[in-house]
Each structure stands twice: as C-alpha cells, then as structure tokens.
Write a structure and sequence with these properties.
This protein is an alpha/beta fold. The protein has 2 domains: 231 residues, Aspartate Aminotransferase, domain 2; 105 residues, Aspartate Aminotransferase, domain 1 (Alpha-Beta Complex). It has 13 helices and 15 strands. The strands form 4 sheets. The protein has a 7-stranded mixed β-sheet, sandwiched between helices. The chain has a 4-stranded antiparallel β-sheet with strand order 12-13-15-14, with helices on one face. Strands 1-2 form a two-stranded antiparallel sheet. The termini are far apart.
Length: 419
C-alpha cells in the first residue's frame, strides 16, 4: 500500500514533537536515569493523594500515592502500555487482523479518533463515500473539510454493495492513480447497529464492499462503536478481520459498555496511518487522560478477557430487553401509522412515519406539546434541509413503561398530522 497518496498536505507535514519523544523515552527508562528534560510538573504539588473506586462486578480499583502520581502525570501520546497491550490482545482474539503491520493507539473517545482520521485523509474537493443516513457527528466532522459527500444506498442490512458498485461505475479503476484523479479514496461506514438506522451489515456484504475497495484502491473507515452491542451470536466478521492489504482503519469505543464520560476510544489500522494519528494527538490533546487509562486498565486486567466478555453479555442482555420493549410498544401503537425494521445491534429504532413528508417541524415543535421527544431524521442526512419522513427513537435510557407512553403520544401526534 502506498499511503502517501491518501494523506492530506497538513497530515503529511506533521513532524514528531521532540518534547513528547523525550517524555515517552523517560517513561521507558530505568529509575536510575536522571532527567532534566521535558516539562512535566512535580506530582508532589498535586492535591490528590489516593483514590478507591468501587466496581459493580469486580474488585475495587485502588490508587495508592505512587499510582496516583502516575495517573495524574503526562503519559505517552499513543496510550499507556498496559492498556494498549490488553487491547491489542483483545483485538487479535476478536478480529485476528491478517495485516502484520496493524497498529493501535488510544484516543479521547472514538470521536477524536474519527476526527483525526478524517483530517489525515480528506482534502477539499475529495469525494468521500458513506451510507446515508449516517451519524450526525460524522457529518459535522466531514462537512467543514470541503469534501463532496456521496451517498451510497443502504437498507436494514447496511450499505448495499450493488449500490456502491453503481456509484463507482462513474470512474474506471485505471483512473485511480492518475494525477488529480477524482476517484474516491475513502469509504466510511458504521457496520453494526448503525446510528441512526440500527442496520448491521452481513458478512457477505462486507466482503463485497472490501473487494470493491481493493478494485478502486480505497481506504475503509470502519466506525464500530456498537460492535459490543450485537444481539445475536455469532457476530459477523469485521472489515478489520478481512484486511489483507492494510486498507481498513477501525475505530472502537468503550462509551457504550464501560462509560461514555470517561472518553476512551481506540484507532486500529495500518501502522503508517496510526502513526500519523498519533502525531496529530501530540500536537492537540497530547494524550488521553492518564487517570482514565490506568483506571480502565486496572479493571480490565482484574477481569481478564473472560470477565470482560461476561460484562459485555450483561450489557447486551439489558439492551436486548430494552429493544424488545420498544418493538412491542411500536407494534401496539404505531403499526398503522409507521414502519420500521428491528435492529440487530445498537440503541436505536429508525421509524418511517406514514403520510408525513418531513418530520422536522412535527418533532421540533408539535412533539413538545405532546411531551415526547425524538430526533428528526433530517439531521442524519447529507443535506439536512431535504425532506425526511423518518425519526430516530433511542431505547437506551427510558423504562419500558416510558417507551410505551411515548409511542402512545407519538401515535396521536402522527394521526393529528395526517388528518
């Protein structure tokens, strides 16, 4: 893979931070090393001495004074070694990436990873492929970059490879490496429990999309924050598990399974590209919270992979019951006024309202009068001003009783709008 052609001018110009290099070198050096380098503050001046954090299903996480000093100090930009080691082992067991040059770094939530990957790969005027509707945070990150967002049709099984083939037929694979070629270099997708649709790609669709990416020499950004919220086993293989070339950049998140507020995510992909992401981290956030990384690392090591998987199973069971409750209430109240597909992963139900051309005004104004709030589908579209008959309902927080009452109110709202 020639990654140079994918990089933006800004990303290609990034150089390692000399101070960051010294900081990371110092952390790997023996205690006998006397360092007058770097700019780390003296931890003896910090007011925090120790911490003890109770865990729902596991031993208490303790920070004595020595551990606390490390947790409150600067750390390596790519992540704390023991957390990276644990996560690399997990990625190998889950996905077994066939590309030997696969690397990983820690990010402040997967959103930081996504933003930095986009900044690394997308230049003004580039054509970027994605399945729309898509995550509004992705649109917020991509649209200011001045690229052309091209919608690839999708359904309840995610991105449609035949639709992708039709879009790509506008170009010839022979044009890929020509100067100033307009052939898309990047394809973005949420393969499991997509936000907002809840759609999940089948293994065969992923293989078909990957082959098209090989044919047109594209990179695939596999944004998979709901990977651990798949309701049915076995889980479909990931793009990363198929990546023999080194053309998949994967983002993972702990937000849905450990904590959204801890802001802990991961970027996995070809080493030359992950290194570029780390250079951007050096120049921006410097590193993800040392305290967060050490706390989660201690928890994961105490659990082991088996304990982690048991925790995941408990989380999945909770969301499965929530999903079933929402589907049941939808069948009860919305069957005549809306349509939907039951999600196989994630937190969302994507609902098409019958007889409604656009849901913007209906949701933003009239729904508040009925005291029920959903997200109008237009915010997930490339052009948010286009009419959209969909709404997104989340089943993550509300109780089954609240979901049932919300859909009763929504049903009344739709019927009033239809009359």
């Amino acid at each position: 893979m020639n990654y140079a052609r994918f990089l933006t001018a800004v990303s290609a110009a990034r150089k390692p931070s000399p101070i960051r290099i010294l900081t990371e070198l110092q952390q790997r050096s023996p205690p006998s090393l006397i360092s007058l380098a770097g700019g780390a503050p003296n931890p003896n001046t910090f007011p925090f001495l120790s911490a003890s954090i109770q865990v729902r299903n596991g031993p208490t996480v303790n920070f004595d004074e020595t551990a606390m000093k490390r947790a409150l100090q600067y750390s390596a930009s790519n992540g704390i070694p023991e957390l990276l080691m644990w996560m690399k082992d997990l990625q190998k067991n889950l996905h077994n990436p066939p590309n030997p040059q696969t690397e990983m770094c820690v990010t402040t939530g997967s959103q930081e990873g996504l933003s930095k990957v986009f900044d690394m790969l997308v230049s003004p005027g580039d054509n970027v492929l994605l399945d729309a509707p898509t995550y509004s945070g992705t649109l917020a990150a991509l649209q200011p970059l001045g690229c052309n967002l091209i919608n690839v049709a999708s359904d309840e099984h995610g991105m449609d490879p035949e639709a992708l083939r039709r879009v790509l037929s506008c170009w010839s694979p022979s044009d890929v490496h020509k100067p100033n070629s307009s052939v898309p270099k990047v394809l973005y997708t949420i393969p499991n429990g997509g936000n907002p649709t809840g759609a999940s790609m089948t293994e065969q669709r992923k293989r078909d999309v990957y082959q098209l990416a090989r044919q047109y020499d594209m990179l695939i950004i596999e944004d998979d924050p709901y990977y651990f919220l798949q309701f049915e086993k076995p889980w479909a293989p990931t793009f990363l598990s198929m990546d023999v070339d080194g053309r998949v950049i994967r983002t993972d998140s702990f937000s849905k399974i450990l904590s959204s507020g801890l802001r802990l995510g991961f970027v996995t992909g070809p080493k030359p590209l992950v290194e570029r992401v780390v250079l951007h981290i050096q120049a921006s956030t410097m590193h993800t919270s040392s305290f967060t990384q050490l706390m989660v690392s201690q928890l994961l090591h105490s659990w082991g992979e088996e304990g982690f998987r048991q925790h995941i199973d408990g989380v999945i069971e909770f969301y499965r019951k929530q999903k079933d409750a929402m589907i049941s209430s939808a069948e009860k109240w919305l069957k005549d006024v809306a349509e939907w597909h039951a999600p196989k992963a994630g937190m969302f139900l994507w609902i098409k309202l019958k007889g409604i051309t656009d849901t913007q005004q209906l949701i933003r104004e009239k729904a508040l009068e009925k005291e029920v709030l959903l997200v109008p589908g237009g915010v997930f579209m490339i052009n948010s001003s286009d009419p959209c008959a969909y709404v997104r309902a989340a089943f993550s927080l509300s109780s089954p009783e609240q979901i049932d009452e919300a859909f009763r109110r929504l049903s009344l709202l739709i019927k009033e709008a239809q009359s």
